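Q: I'm writing up a methods section and want to include an example of the input and output format. Could you take the sequence below and give the corresponding predicted structure tokens, formatted cleanly so I can copy it straight into the document?
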Amino acid sequence: MRQGRDEQLAAIRQRDHDQLKTHLAEHPDWVFDSPLPEPLVPHVRDVEDDYYSRERSFPDPTSLVLVDEADRLRMASLEQIRGIFDEGKIGLILIGMPGIEKRLVRYPQFYSRIGFVHEFRPLSVQEIRRLLAQQWVPSGVKLPPQPWPEDAVATIIRITSGNFRLLNRLLTQMERILEINRMEVITKTVVETARETLVIGET
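A: Here is the clean output for your methods example:
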């Protein structure tokens, strides 16, 4: 819709520019205070008002908002989020480091709107094996199909220790190692090399 509005407005402005250019050519002694020719329709304001009314007639399609690193938000930002939740009638998920709920409890108006708190625990060994067996990889990453050698899988499990974000990064780096070395097989060495090239801090 906005693209159509912008194209129409550009055409109207060009039309008005051409009209003024023609007027000046036909009236070379025209001075600044003299009347201009009658403006053509539709006017720019007419188009803007029409599109604004049409935009307002469409309901907001947003049904869920996810806020990452919510533990870093200041109170003013939390109040804005609370306002969005109250006015928009949408679902809201706050994602943060452990202890975020203890901070939010200090703000009763905000905390009273929280339905439940869920703590994401590290993946178990079985869950990591299941992900790998199901050929799961990060979006856009391509790795050789399973099964991979057991020692390679065991190394992935040992390095990541159930940390999903680290698993994501490790698999992504493994793809790069394979591509750089023109390899087509996952090995323990590939996994360990990928680990060495990662900067692993707090995750």
